[in-house]
Amino acid sequence: MIRSAEVDDVPAIHAMIRELAEYEKVPHEARATEEQLREALFGARPAVFAHIAQTEGGEVVGFAMWFLSFSTWRGVHGIYLEDLYVRPGVRGGGHGKALLRELARTCVERGYERLEWSVLDWNLSAIDFYRSVGAVSMDEWTVNRLTDDALRKLGGAE
Question: Is 90 exposed, middle or buried (0-12, 13-18, 19+ CB in 10 A)?
Fold first, then answer.
């Protein structure tokens, strides 16, 4: 079952974010606190959204965290999927596909024209899964990121 996240889901989401960081071999990068997640998801001005995958027994086994993007070329919003995670013991059970299907349904329902995300180039099982649902790799694009000292320096804080 897929549903929108609720405030009581924050501890489970937080735990799965930590699991995802471990899986991606960067546990030190996962610094978000439950309080930060609660504010981002359920504060006065939510800027990020989440869906939860549950077993029939109600156990939370996966999540998709996303936010709105905007295409200047198409002139409409889209969804940027920040993270999709399904716990290893239930992978292959349709939870990841159900989460993606829910986001695609949201796009179609709202008139959004893109659902985009990034995937690590070494994560072949994820790449194969995404291709199986019709996703196309944007190989000609390179992700760029500013964080920490470089961000502060460019932003004039140093």
Answer: middle
Decide if 115 contacts 78 (C-beta within 8 A): yes
The whole-model pTM stands at: 0.93
Quick check: 102 and 64 in contact, CB under 8 A?
Answer: yes
Cβ 62 vs Cβ 52: under 8 Å: yes
- Judge contact between 47 and 82, C-beta under 8 A: no
Per-run averaged pLDDT (10 residues), the chain, 158 residues: 96 98 96 97 96 96 98 97 97 96 97 96 94 94 91 87
Q: Which residues pair with 68 in a beta bridge?
A: 79
In terms of Cα–Cα distance, which of 120, 109, 37 is closest to 84? 120
Q: Where are the alpha helices (DSSP H) in 2-158?
A: 10-23, 34-42, 95-110, 124-132, 148-154
Residues in the chain: 158
Annotated active-site positions, please? Answer: 130
Nearby residues of 129 by Cβ (< 8 Å), 6 or more positions away: 96, 97
